[in-house]
Amino acid sequence: MKKIAIIGAGLTGLTTAFYLKKNNIDITVFESNHHIGGVIHTEKKDGFIWEKGPSTGVLGKPEAMELFEDLDALDILETAPSLAGKRYIWKGNKLHPLPGDPISGLLTPLFSWKDKLGILFEPFRPKAKNPDENLSSFVRRRLGESILQYAVDPFVSGVYAGSPDTIIPRYALPKLYNLEATYGSFIRGTIHKMKEPKTPRDLKATKKIFSAKDGLSTLINRLTLSIGEKHIKTDCKDVIVTKEEQGFSVSYTGSDAIHFDEVIFTGNAKGILKTFPFLQNKGLDAISKVRYTAVAEVAVGFKKWEGFPLDGFGALIPSKEGKRILGVLFMSSLFKNRAPSGGAMLSVFVGGERHPEYVSLSDKELKALVQEELTTILSIPNFNPTVFEISRHLEAIPQYDLLTPDRINAFKKAEENYPGLHLAGNGIGGIGMADRIKQGKELFLSIIS
Ligand SMILES: Cc1cc2nc3c(=O)[nH]c(=O)nc-3n(C[C@H](O)[C@H](O)[C@H](O)COP(=O)(O)OP(=O)(O)OC[C@H]3O[C@@H](n4cnc5c(N)ncnc54)[C@H](O)[C@@H]3O)c2cc1C
């Protein structure tokens, strides 16, 4: 029977481990931290529940729904109510709902009249000549400057903590990129896609926002339970993988080398060359060339909420508006039990590509910054939170920028040169939780095939 080592016990590694184990394959997961779940980490205190890492996922890939089904965990799947479709954007000292239909699209003060009317001509605009065009230029060309500034820029801050000037749609937003590349237009492509017949599996991919009951750690706990804790080794410092004549050996500080037939890496791409010394000096340096943005996520919980009605997903702040936070999610409006009745739990994001320096501010400075911005944006009369917890992620989100194609090629080349080696993690294949689950499942499928 094949023996497989999986490096990293985040969502990607655990998904792969779960499917391999379910198919009776002998696996061991090696995790450098004490904590299982990677960046997923839920905290609970005083009637509040909050996330220190990812807060909400989208069931945008069938694999995400299938994981809950295959894990027999539909009982813990929690999806947000329809109000999650309402997203606010800050403009001119006010929150405005992002339009969701043509009428509100015409009436919104977020976009210029030139761009609102210009949408009618989008199907006739020429395709890009440069496939590696950045997102700013892509959106400006097809939709106009105000849509870039007041829809796409805040979206990129919210999802990537990044900038549309560096993000390349071909790698970061392949669905959007392909609408133009395949159909010549977003509108034409969307209509075409809507008409395409859907299989029952396609229909499992939806725009629904998900978490797990009592937070995402509940999903991690289910995965851990199913895999079996004895198959997950935590606190493995300095994991080193050595190529052997047949297969690989894995060792870490204080351990003997253990032989495996195949090895899967699911951590931060920057760590690959250190973990796999046999890949060094082989012209594969692009493997580890990835820029991660830094983010501070601040959980702010109020026992009694008296501010702006939290009737949506959250509020995003365009760079042009000069505020010092990227956005805020209304977590207690999305999922149950996040705050005591009448209270609120908010998740505030600071830093990113716009202001990485804010992540290194002292707790006191960061608290003052968050207090000042939240008080204004959400009209809070009395800033007296019961929970105020800062989680700093110095390497939070990989940026799918111009370094990406070389990185993807280097991953492929390394795997071709060393059969049995599988390089994964959020440096390729997308950053969202559904992307991670999809990659984890695909790793499993490639191994059993
Ligand atoms: C602050 C923050 C907010 C986010 N918000 C969202 C969100 O709202 N929605 C969403 O869909 N996505 C969000 N994301 C992105 C998403 O959470 C991640 O892409 C995803 O959880 C990453 O899972 P992973 O398993 O690939 O990596 P990780 O969670 O990073 O796990 C990798 C694991 O590998 C371990 N590891 C790495 N190298 C080694 C090694 N050499 N030896 C041993 N162990 C190693 C690490 O310790 C870690 O535990 C967010 C990310 C961050 C940081």
What is the molecular shape? globular
What would you give as the CATH superfamily of the largest domain?
A: FAD/NAD(P)-binding domain
Give the mean pLDDT. 97
CATH topology of the largest domain: FAD/NAD(P)-binding domain
Terminal residue distance: 14 Å
The secondary-structure class comes to alpha/beta
CA radius of gyration is 22 Å
Question: Which strands sit side by side, in order, in the main sheet?
Answer: 8-7-16-17-18-15-19
CATH architecture of the largest domain: 3-Layer(bba) Sandwich
Helical residue percent? 25-40%
Q: What is the CATH class name of the largest domain?
A: Alpha Beta
Tally of DSSP β-strands: 20
How many structural domains can be distinguished in the coordinates?
A: 3
Q: Biggest sheet, in brief? A: 7 strands, mixed
Task: Give the uncertain stretches in residue-range form.
Answer: none
Q: Which ligands accompany this protein? A: flavin-adenine dinucleotide
Number of helices: 15
Strand content: 15-25%
Characterize this entry briefly.
By secondary structure, the chain is α/β, with parallel strands linked by helices.
